[in-house]
UniProtKB/TrEMBL annotation:
The lineage of its organism: Bacteria, Pseudomonadati, Pseudomonadota, Alphaproteobacteria, Sphingomonadales. PANTHER family: 2-HYDROXYACID DEHYDROGENASE YGL185C-RELATED, 2-HYDROXYACID DEHYDROGENASE-RELATED. Residues 99-272 form the D-isomer specific 2-hydroxyacid dehydrogenase NAD-binding domain. InterPro entries: D-isomer_2-hydroxyacid_DH (IPR050223), D-isomer_2_OHA_DH_cat_dom (IPR006139), D-isomer_DH_NAD-bd (IPR006140), NAD(P)-bd_dom_sf (IPR036291). GO terms for molecular function: glyoxylate reductase (NADPH) activity; hydroxypyruvate reductase [NAD(P)H] activity; NAD binding. Keywords: NAD, NADP, Oxidoreductase. This is 2-hydroxyacid dehydrogenase. SUPFAM superfamilies: Formate/glycerate dehydrogenase catalytic domain-like, NAD(P)-binding Rossmann-fold domains. Belongs to the D-isomer specific 2-hydroxyacid dehydrogenase family. One of its GO terms (cellular component) is cytosol. Residues 35-301 form the D-isomer specific 2-hydroxyacid dehydrogenase catalytic domain. Pfam families: 2-Hacid_dh, 2-Hacid_dh_C.
């Protein structure tokens, strides 16, 4: 498949374009409105109540992502609009990336790669030592599909795995922590894998970050909104947090300038699901949900 969902949607459905040529701002046009029964959107774009109001016949929203925090779910529910997402198909890739960020951060892979590429290895000699990952205590904030996949991958590295979710998860052996604060205070690495949205906005605040401390590290592959970004930047700049591996940010694609020169930070442009295989599977699931909707059949992945 290897093309964006819109390419395949065009070939299967009547598609009035609601985006202005995939511009960086993804500004939605006010027209066309009447007659549109379904909208396909990306998780980072979503659809708000104002846009839904311009679509009086809207019955279904297909989101090409697992996260739906940019969709006004309350308005969709009020109007009886069905919402689907693309869970499961991206779980493995996001979990893999969390492990990759952890290894890259602890072993200084980006720094050492830059040293070799710049030709400075010969003149500067060996870089400063990195840190051992094996044996570190790893905490996972949010033990859903992705959180559990991360825990299974992290098990060979970890001295201990602990987690915090809204409730203890049945049939897992990992230690449950009563709060994000308790979890952060008891681990060396905190991996954020919880959904975005109002319920988790700035869940990782200054107190949680300080509980991790100057020897702790934060990995975020969830949503930028889950972490108080100002508090995170301040802690990293001031040395109150040991390091961070970030795939998501509060105001994407904008990244705080203060993070860019920091050697103890690994930064990625929201690449969790960005593999050919997973993006193909996500596109197919969007198409399958749309096809089911228009055929009057049960949706595959309704919220």
């Amino acid at each position: 498949m290897t093309k964006p969902p819109l390419y395949y949607i065009d070939s299967s459905f009547a598609v009035p374009r609601l985006t202005d040529g995939l511009k960086a701002t993804y500004d939605l046009r006010p027209e066309p409105g009447p007659g549109i029964r379904a909208v396909a959107t990306h998780g980072s774009t979503g659809i708000d109540a104002a846009t839904m109001a311009k679509l009086p016949d809207l019955e279904m929203i297909a989101v090409s992502a697992v996260g739906v925090d940019k969709v006004d779910l309350a308005e969709a529910k009020r109007r009886g609009i069905h919402v689907t997402n693309t869970p499961d198909v991206l779980t493995d890739d996001v979990a893999d990336l969390a492990i990759g960020l952890m290894i890259a951060l602890y072993r200084n892979i980006p720094r050492d790669d830059a040293l070799v590429r710049s030709g400075r290895w010969a003149s500067e000699g060996m870089p400063t030592l990195s840190r051992r990952l094996t044996g570190q205590r790893i905490g996972i904030l949010g033990l859903g599909r992705i959180g559990q996949a991360i825990a299974k991958r992290a098990a060979p590295f970890a001295g201990e795995i602990a987690y915090h979710s809204r409730h203890p998860v049945a049939d897992v052996s990992w230690r449950y922590a009563e709060s994000a604060m308790v979890l952060a205070a008891s681990v060396d690495i905190l991996i954020v894998a919880t959904p975005g949205g109002p319920a988790t906005d700035k869940l990782v605040d200054a107190t949680v970050i300080d509980a991790l401390g100057p020897n702790g590290s934060l990995i975020n592959i969830a949503r930028g909104s889950v972490v108080d970004e100002d508090a995170l930047v301040a802690a990293l700049v001031e040395g109150r947090l040991g390091g961070a591996g970030l795939d998501v940010f509060a105001h994407e694609p904008h990244v705080p300038a203060a993070l860019l020169p920091l050697p103890n930070v690994v930064l990625l442009p929201h690449q969790g699901s960005a593999t050919v295989e997973t993006r193909d599977a996500m596109a197919q699931l969007v198409l399958d949900n749309l096809a089911a909707f228009f055929a009057g059949q049960p949706l595959l992945t309704p919220l």
